[in-house]
UniProtKB/TrEMBL annotation:
This is Threonine/Serine exporter ThrE domain-containing protein. Its main location: membrane. It holds the Pfam family ThrE_2. GO terms for cellular component: plasma membrane. InterPro entries: ThrE_2, ThrE_Dicarb/AminoAcid_Exp. Belongs to the ThrE exporter (TC 2.A.79) family. Keywords: Cell inner membrane, Cell membrane, Membrane, Transmembrane, Transmembrane helix.
């Protein structure tokens, strides 16, 4: 489990370098991916569902990204995009395409649906966390006035 989280950390660092994000934020973006993957593993251990696990992982990535954006005064996208890289269902997308090529259409259908569901869960997790964070921040600012 620690090995997987370390690899998720590294898997989030390399997109930062690729997208030429400020070098001072490399470590923080790595933590984003590690936190998202740790949340994924924790939920997957109990549910065995890649869709719900990806949703929770993406939700944690979104919350962490919004927090770090406020702390480091930078756009949250600089953390959320590298942070979701470990969650992206690459092997299921590959299996889908490979099954189509090999004319195994029932396997391609099931793997394709899982790929789409995980992708949607990631998008929904990021969207929900960002919306919730901004809503709570707005309420807190109104309460201070």
């Amino acid at each position: 489990m620690i090995k997987q989280i370390l690899l998720a950390f590294l898997g989030s660092i390399f997109p930062v370098i690729l997208f030429n994000i400020d070098r001072k934020k490399i470590i923080w973006a790595g933590f984003c991916g590690a936190i998202g993957w740790a949340a994924y593993l924790a939920v997957y251990k109990y549910t065995y569902s890649p869709v719900s696990s990806s949703f929770v992982g993406a939700f944690f990535v979104g919350i962490y990204s919004e927090l770090m954006a406020r702390i480091l005064k930078t756009p949250a996208v600089q953390f959320s995009i590298p942070g979701i890289f470990p969650l992206v269902p690459g092997i299921t997308a590959y299996t889908t395409i490979n099954s189509i090529v090999e004319q195994k259409y029932s396997l391609a259908s099931s793997e394709g649906m899982q790929t789409i569901a995980v992708g949607g869960a990631i998008a929904f997790g990021i969207m929900l966390s960002t919306t919730a964070f901004r809503f709570i921040s707005k309420l807190a600012k109104q309460k201070l006035k």
